[in-house]
Amino acid sequence: MEVEIPVVVARRRRVTADIVRLWLIGVDARPLPSWTPGAHIDVLLPNGTERQYSLCGDPSDEEWSIMVLREPQGRGGSQYVHDAVWTGQKLKVRGPRNHFALDPAPRYRFLAGGIGITPILPMLREAEAAGAEWSLTYCGRSRQGMACAEELTVGHGGRVRLHVDSEQGVPDVAALLSDPRPGELLYACGPNSMLEAIERMGAHWPKGSIHFERFSAVTRDTTADTEFEVELASSGKVLTVPADRSILDVVRESGIQMLSSCQEGTCGTCETAVVSGQVDHRDAVLSKEEQEENEVMMVCVSRAACPRLVLDL
């Protein structure tokens, strides 16, 4: 089981009307694990909910920093953070975990939508420190709701472009993806509508050069789901997964403890190695290339595309 780390909120600041930033330190000044740009942590809130937030500070700092957007239509986690988590509050976290790591490259193109700026912020620092060329387009509905917008434009000048929907209309995604340069990697994080548009319009980019971080689940049609079998490699035990149940649920019911958090295929906590069989990937964590490799799966949402999967459990 992954270790739960006790932390305390060292500082809290309201960044915009709907975004608060928290700085976390280890309880009793215990050092926190190291992390790399793109990493996120699971925050175990006192009300019993778990949520994932990208680390947005500097990896060299002794404290961790996250930003939380209040989502009135969400499941309650963000509202709890806004209304009940204050300086001095003790929390527990897991991680960090990184499925959005920044690969070495001579140049980068960053696209961020709304709160999707959070994992991008430390990437900018790393790209800058590495001497790479980079540019950022940061999109938001209103200027007032864009975290760190002034800091970014003042600090980086022409390399940062703000696109404010209320002033400029919907961004032209095709234009944002135009003319990829040799060796250039694209990193994008934001709402699903933005990322789906990038997927549709980014076919002219070299394979493996576009990387996503999603904060919400991918919508899938489950009406044609059927039952299948899962074999546990460690024991040879075979479990039947009904059409309306997840692998995670069935494995847990068999008596095996499995860590999970989002149960929507967005956090990567339940990642499991595939020994054999073909997976119907339904997560929002793995890239297309990683899904094609068929080496791991997220058992909270993904299913079998064959009669039997053998998993490293």
UniProtKB/TrEMBL annotation:
Matching Pfam families: Fer2 (PF00111)
Stretches assigned to the 2Fe-2S ferredoxin-type domain: 228-313
Gene Ontology MF terms in the entry: 2 iron, 2 sulfur cluster binding; metal ion binding; oxidoreductase activity
Keywords on record: 2Fe-2S, Flavoprotein, Iron, Iron-sulfur, Metal-binding, Oxidoreductase
The keyword Zinc-finger belongs to this UniProt entry's keyword annotation: no
Domain of life: Bacteria
Residues of the signal peptide: none
UniProt xrefs under PROSITE patterns: 2FE2S_FER_1, 2FE2S_FER_2, FAD_FR
Cofactor(s), names only, from the UniProt record: FAD
The name this protein goes by in its record: Oxidoreductase
